[in-house]
Amino acid sequence: MQRAFLQHISSFVICLMTLASVYQSSGCAISFELFPPKNAEGVDLLCKNVERLMQFSPKYFTCTYGAGGSSRGTTLEVLQKVKQITNLPVASHLTCVGSTVEELEGYLADAREIGVDYIVALRGDPPQGTTKFEVTEGGLKYANELVELIRGKFDDLGIAVAGYPETHQEAVDFQTDLVNLKRKVDAGADIVITQLFYHNDDFYRFRDACQAIGIEVPIVPGILPVTNFKQAKRIASMCKASIPAELESAMSEKEDAAHQFRVGVDHARQQTIDLLKHGVPGIHYYVLNKSEAAAELLDGLQLAGV
């Protein structure tokens, strides 16, 4: 009875943790990103993978939604289940795409109602079939405006924003992109989570530039373990991330799925070890609703005593 009470109190304290405070300890905070499954079977599998990932003591889970907000309802359902399973804080992605301010406020109210703790505030990519972001009538144009909205009316929610080590694909140049990022941080963001990257030097260059321009919130690297080379190239091309020549060469040696998995996981593990040596406050893993790659990567670190 006493043990159950203490576990309840511990869970309550964890869920009161602010997003900024997650990164104030001396260790490296781990978090995982999910996306909403298309059916009930996918939800069940996601829950099993979440349970497996809990062995690595993550600080929180995030969940995206489909293009144009097509699966926002499912995102909230997933996050509610994840919170029930883990007793950890959860974060919902939110974009400006296809929504009025009133609709954004409605979603934020619903998210807070079901227990969402943090928001990953994004402008969002253009809807599928288009190449240019169009502002919805009565909506918002930039992510910093979304941050201002959340901070102004939902100040109890933590806010993460996106950073781009290799520059956002629509930005004029690297420096302009940094100025835009600082605008989001100045509007009230607690942390920056980066887009995926495969060259750690790109992240260090980006982090140094952020510090030079006066961005003082935690900069959290985002890592996607490569497990399928064709898929990795497609995702990397979408977000303007370059794949190292040595990784491409090693993975393309064989089309064998097991070989590509091992090579990709090892690369992500080496990225992680190097990032830890360089004092990152945390690492955000894009797990694509699967636990195998992240589990093997992190298991390997534990076995090595990292």
UniProtKB/TrEMBL annotation:
Residues 1-25 form the signal peptide. SUPFAM superfamilies: FAD-linked oxidoreductase. Keywords: Amino-acid biosynthesis, FAD, Flavoprotein, Methionine biosynthesis, NAD, Oxidoreductase, Signal. Pathway: Amino-acid biosynthesis; L-methionine biosynthesis via de novo pathway; One-carbon metabolism; tetrahydrofolate interconversion. InterPro entries: FAD-linked_oxidoreductase-like, Mehydrof_redctse-like, MTHF_reductase_bac. Coiled coil: none annotated. It comes from the Bacteria. The keyword Flavoprotein applies. GO terms for biological process: methionine biosynthetic process; tetrahydrofolate interconversion. The keyword Transcription regulation does not apply. It catalyses: (6S)-5-methyl-5,6,7,8-tetrahydrofolate + NAD(+) = (6R)-5,10-methylene-5,6,7,8-tetrahydrofolate + NADH + H(+). GO terms for cellular component: cytosol. CDD domains: MTHFR. It is an enzyme of class 1 (oxidoreductase). Its cofactor is FAD. One of its GO terms (molecular function) is FAD binding. Its EC number is 1.5.1.54. Belongs to the methylenetetrahydrofolate reductase family. This is Methylenetetrahydrofolate reductase. The lineage of its organism: Bacteria, Pseudomonadati, Planctomycetota, Planctomycetia, Pirellulales.
